[in-house]
Design goal:
alpha/beta, TIM Barrel, 12 helices, 9 strands, 12% strand, binds 3-hydroxy-3-methylglutaryl-coenzyme A, binds magnesium ion
Length: 326
């Protein structure tokens, strides 16, 4: 280890580059008890961009009563309109009304969000699974016709708090429906963080068998049981090269109480850097950003890497110097 970075030890059979899809400003902040001021959100996004992130999910155009923490989407967009056009700033859009609002604010990248289960479709979208797909269909068609890039999330791919185990075939069916609608990319959500690496490999194999190209897949792991990084490695070994993560490990879903924070971007960057995989992210700047955000939220970051690099774990009684002090 040198200069707060791990020694490079490339392992074979992994993608040479990984695209990090940063979800901190959306997934990270949608679950906060208090609403973060819009100026702080805008600064967070600017700082993430300065740290080298090139895809940053900015907010949601959902019903403001359903997610009050992101009800300021209209106020946020003008505050980040100075960011360069090569940056992707996707926003969540559930329906035609959401798309209208997003388009009116110049959004060029959108994400619809389906569920692999009936229970979560009902809890999160107030629809049955097939009604929710019917709601997304015209949104994706119109967005594609207007030249937008469209991501389709599939939540509860690995387990559901109401239904328990989720059959692989059920996940595959929803993935295929979203691809057939025209989604450019699918993100496989482990909303409550119950996946383990063998399960990840099995789902990816089932998707391949059903003709879903790995190049169109991303993974989205919440870290409830500490498995997010192991699950990510399993996905990389399968050829997945887009990984969702949240700066500092913020995150959760207000409509799935057992959901905790996402895979922390810093933990991901640390592992990828050690594996010799490029991400373009400056780990020191990113860590500073998460430390700054932790200060705004009034609690320490749950990311192990942020805690190690900022010396948060070096309290009285420990004789280990923090990396910052070395
Ligand atoms: P609904 O109550 O069924 O809405 O909610 P509706 O279609 O019956 O419409 C009712 C009223 O809401 C209408 O107004 C609409 O215009 C208005 P009225 O005519 O009565 O005056 N309305 C809207 N207003 C503003 N923006 C809109 C909008 N839509 C309707 N977009 C709805 C249905 C889908 C809107 C609601 O369920 C909703 O907003 N859900 C969003 C929940 C959410 O954001 N969850 C968190 C994100 S998902 C997640 O975190 C998982 C993920 O991270 C992946 C993973 O971890 O697995 C992505
Ligand atoms: Mg999520």
């Amino acid at each position: 280890m040198t200069d707060g970075l791990p020694t490079r030890f490339p392992a074979g059979g992994l993608p040479p580059e990984v695209r990090i899809y940063e979800v901190g400003p959306r997934d990270g902040l949608q679950n906060e008890q208090s609403t973060v001021p819009v100026e702080v959100k805008a600064e967070f996004i600017h700082r993430l961009r300065d740290a080298g992130l090139r895809t940053i999910e900015a907010t949601s155009f959902v019903h403001p009563k359903w997610v009050p923490q992101l009800a300021d989407a209209e106020q946020l967009m003008p505050l980040i309109s100075d960011l360069p056009r090569d940056l992707r700033l996707p926003v969540l859009v559930p329906n035609a009304r959401g798309l209208e609002r997003a388009v009116a604010h110049g959004c060029r990248d959108i994400a619809v969000f389906a569920s692999a289960t009936e229970s979560f479709a009902k809890a999160n979208l107030n629809r049955t699974l097939s009604e929710s797909l019917a709601m997304f269909e015209p949104v994706v068609t119109r967005a594609k016709a207007e030249g937008q890039w469209v991501r389709g999330y599939v939540s509860m791919c690995f387990g559901d708090p109401w239904e328990g185990a989720v059959p692989l075939a059920q996940v595959v069916g929803v993935c295929r429906a979203l691809l057939e609608m025209g989604c450019d990319e699918l993100s496989l959500g482990d909303t409550i963080g119950v996946a383990t690496p063998g399960h990840v490999s099995a789902l990816l194999a089932a998707l391949n068998e059903a003709g879903v190209p790995t190049g169109q897949l991303a993974v989205h792991f919440h870290d409830t049981y500490g498995q997010a990084l192991s699950n990510t490695l399993a996905a990389l070994q399968h050829g997945v090269a887009t990984v969702d993560a949240s700066a500092g490990g913020l995150g959760g879903c207000p409509y799935a109480k057992s959901a905790t924070g996402n895979l922390a971007t810093e933990d991901l960057v640390w592992m990828l850097r050690g594996l010799g995989i490029d991400t373009g992210v400056d780990l020191a700047r990113l860590t500073d950003t998460s430390d700054w955000m932790a200060g705004r939220l009034g609690r320490p970051s749950p990311s192990r890497t942020v805690r190690a690099l900022t010396g948060a774990d070096t309290g009285p009684g420990t004789d280990q110097p923090s990396h910052k002090e070395q």
